[in-house]
Design a protein that fits this description.
By secondary structure, the chain is mainly beta. Helix content is about 0%, strand content about 75%.
Length: about 160
C-alpha cells in the first residue's frame, strides 16, 4: 500500500557500506482523524540492500538489488462503535505492535546527478500483537494496520543524493 493512502509520512536514509551493499533505515509516522476512526502510529524498518547489477554513467545510473528487511510498527486506533450494554455509540481504543520480515526486489535509477527513483516489489510475513481487541474489519485485509499474515510490498520512492 502506498504510504500516502495510509496517511503516513516516511523518511529514509541509505548508507553504502561497499559499492555493492548498502544499509537503509526508514522511519515513519501516521495520523488520521475522521468521524468514525482516529489512528496514529510510528514505524521503523531496516533494509540490507545487495546490488546485483550496477551501471554508473556521469549523468545517470541504474542499479538492480534485492533487500531483506525487518520492520516494526506501533499503532493506536480509536473506533466509534455501538455499545450493546449501554445502547450508545462510544469510542473504543486499542493499541498494538506489529513486526515483520521479508525481501524486496528493486530498480534504483539516478538522474540529474542528485535525484534518485527507486521502484520495488516483494513481500514477507507480518505479525500484529494484541490486535485481536479490534473489531473484525480493522485487521482483516493486508491494508489494515492490525493485519497478521503474508504481506505484499510494492512502492516507488523518490530521493536525493547528498
Amino acid at each position: 500500500a502506498s504510504q500516502f493512502t495510509r496517511s503516513t509520512f516516511q523518511m529514509s536514509f541509505e548508507h553504502y557500506l561497499t559499492p555493492t551493499t548498502s544499509l537503509q533505515f526508514n522511519a515513519a509516522m501516521n495520523y488520521r482523524d475522521n468521524d468514525y476512526e482516529q489512528t496514529w502510529g510510528i514505524g521503523a524498518e531496516a533494509q540490507l540492500k545487495f546490488y546485483v547489477y550496477s551501471l554508473i554513467n556521469p549523468r545517470n545510473s541504474h542499479r538492480l538489488y534485492f533487500a531483506p528487511y525487518l520492520m516494526n510498527n506501533y499503532e493506536e486506533v480509536k473506533n466509534y462503535q455501538y455499545n450493546s450494554i449501554s445502547g450508545r455509540q462510544e469510542w473504543n481504543a486499542n493499541s498494538f505492535d506489529a513486526v515483520g520480515t521479508g525481501v524486496l526486489f528493486g530498480w534504483s535509477f539516478s538522474f540529474a546527478n542528485r535525484v534518485n527513483l527507486d521502484i520495488y516489489t516483494g513481500g514477507g510475513i507480518r505479525k500484529a500483537f494484541n490486535a485481536n481487541d479490534l473489531s473484525y474489519y480493522s485487521n482483516s485485509t493486508v491494508f489494515d494496520y492490525g493485519y497478521s499474515g503474508i504481506t505484499p510490498r510494492l512502492g516507488i520512492d523518490i530521493g536525493f543524493w547528498f
